[in-house]
Amino acid sequence: MIDGQGMPDAKSFDPDLHAWEAWRPEEVATRLAGVPAPWYVAGGWALDLFLGYQRRAHEDIEIGVPHGQFDQIVAALIGYELFVVAYNRVWPLAHAGNLLASHHQTWVREPATGRWRLDIFREPFAGDLWVCRRDSRLKLPYERLIALTDDGIPYAQPEVVLLFKAKALRPNDVSDYEAVLPRLAPHQRNWLREALKIVHPGHHWIADLSEDDTVMPSGRNTLRPQNATGTQA
User: Does residue 202 form part of some domain?
Assistant: First the structure.
């Protein structure tokens, strides 16, 4: 075992993955009602919210929030136990040390049942811009990153979710991509294509995303690739 500083730590443990009984998006939204931080449902559930129906079963549920505003989520979940996930183990939030900065996942457990309810992604940010943790050259304003369902549940735009699913290509990732691709608007297909060229050059999804689509709209609502010096390319 290692602690947040790389030392042995008896406070960490192997989580029981069979203890996941995740909340649904509407339950998460109820518990986080009033949180001013720009949080959003991520992962497979975000794609189902985009499609407008639950297309498949989900073992868990993930949300994203700027790392610097994570404390607002913590405050809204008083009474639950939070654990930072690293090295296939979990550390109580109060004992996570440097792992809080180096690892982005935090799981939420309900003390009364021992069930895991929520996976929180603490994401990089720059002011009012979301920053992609896979490649910091990709940035989006939160108003462009986050969409809302008709009943007000915030979720990540599908092209952003698919960018993260492009890495592992598990069966669910491929199935999600095939279900969502026909529903993407031209500017969403273009964003995903250009982002894949940056994060996963040569990825076979790039060929699926037609070069003939409408050019991405200009302005702050677009992909923002930067050069190595940090200035916009």
Answer: no
* Spatial separation of the C-alpha atoms in residues 35 and 217, rounded to whole Å: 30
The reply to whether 201 falls in a domain is no
> Binning pLDDT at 50, 70 and 90, where does residue 5 land?
low
pLDDT-derived band at 211, boundaries 50, 70, 90: low
Q: Give DSSP secondary structure letters for 27-75.
A: HHHHHTTT--S--EEEHHHHHHHHHTS--S--S--EEEEEGGGHHHHHH
User: Looking at the domain assignment, is residue 40 inside a domain?
Assistant: yes
> Tokens at residue 146, please?
């986050």
Provide the pLDDT for residue 226: 37
pTM as predicted? 0.88
DSSP 222: S
- Full domain range(s) for residue 26: 17-184
